[in-house]
Amino acid sequence: MEGMSKFLILLGVILIVLGVLWSVLGKLGLGRLPGDIVVERDGVHVYIPLATSILLSVVLSLVLTFIFWLLNR
Which of 4, 11, 46, 61 could bridge to 39 as Cys pair (CB 3.0-4.6 Å)? Predict the structure, then answer.
């Protein structure tokens, strides 16, 4: 039971950090890149962050590749 509680606390902290980062990065323009799809009609707002997702995927892949490279040295 102790392991599950630590996991849930860690997950909560990670979600809080991601929420703060998302709001800070949103002010810098991340989330409104050309290629992100926004549809607004009759009170319905649909947002598909396609370009943002691709950019974050590439950056995270590069960072993780670099970290694993350092660990294997």
Answer: 46
